[in-house]
Design a protein that fits this description.
4 helices; alpha/beta; 13% strand; FAD-bd_PCMH; binds flavin-adenine dinucleotide
């Protein structure tokens, strides 16, 4: 196994590899991708954002750099990943769609963190409650996905999503960032509280 370009602070390669082996053995979790060279740092595109670094970097391209990227498929995957990271004291950096372009995207603020790409596989809309005007979604659900769901289920006359400019960003990422949309209730705290139309 090759040592990553950026190890987490105070973590020896041996400890990092023990963590990687344990994570790789977890059922359902894709093989973890270790970032070993700046040649791998593809800036991608709007539809294909990099998870390794900030494509709009102001400092060096490898300044905010992940040691590895892992893509869980389920809540138990995420739980097992967090438990394992805690055991080895490996810092994690969760990201959903990674489209927060210009604000760092999916790049970890702590160099050498392991990026958890929650948006790649976890893309289900679990519940839409019309009376309560709320939705339960996985991290990879975008505002556009939710809109399409409302259209498909003929709910557009009942619920109104408070969408920011970036319809292709995740509902969850925008909520944790205290995003703001364009409805009367578009406060910076309530991304998945929709507006009921009169
Ligand atoms: C052109 C443009 C226009 C925009 N306009 C608006 C606007 O009008 N209103 C507005 O509010 N925002 C706006 N934004 C910001 C953008 O909408 C949100 O930041 C976006 O919705 C975040 O979604 P994402 O999945 O891309 O986030 P990501 O890039 O994946 O993550 C953003 C941040 O949230 C954290 N995060 C993401 N998912 C999780 C998670 N599951 N658990 C814990 N932490 C997580 C990440 O660590 C990161 O710090 C705009 C951005 C762009 C590029």
């Amino acid at each position: 196994m090759t040592v990553p370009l950026a190890l987490p602070p105070n973590i020896e390669p041996k400890t990092f590899f023990e963590f990687v082996n344990e994570v790789t053995a977890l059922v359902e979790i894709e093989n973890i991708r270790i970032v070993t060279s700046t040649d791998e740092l593809d800036d991608g595109s709007y539809l294909n954002q990099p998870r390794t670094h900030d494509p709009h970097h102001i400092l060096d391209k490898d300044y905010f750099l992940a040691s590895a990227v892992v893509c869980p498929r389920s809540v138990p995957d995420v739980q097992a990943l967090v438990v394992t990271a805690n055991k080895y004291k490996i810092p994690l950096w969760p990201t959903s769609i990674g489209r927060n372009s210009g604000y760092g995207g999916a790049a970890p603020r702590l160099r050498g963190s392991v990026v958890i790409d929650l948006g790649k596989h976890m893309r289900r809309i679990l519940d839409v409650n019309v009376e309560g005007a709320y939705a339960v979604v996985e991290p990879g659900v975008t505002f556009s996905d939710l809109h399409e769901y409302l259209v498909e289920h003929n709910l557009r006359d009942r619920l109104w999503i408070d969408v920011p400019d970036l319809g292709g960003g995740s509902v969850l990422g925008n909520t944790v960032e205290r995003g703001v949309g364009y409805t009367p209730y578009g406060g910076g705290w309530a991304r998945i509280n929709w507006c009921k139309q009169q």
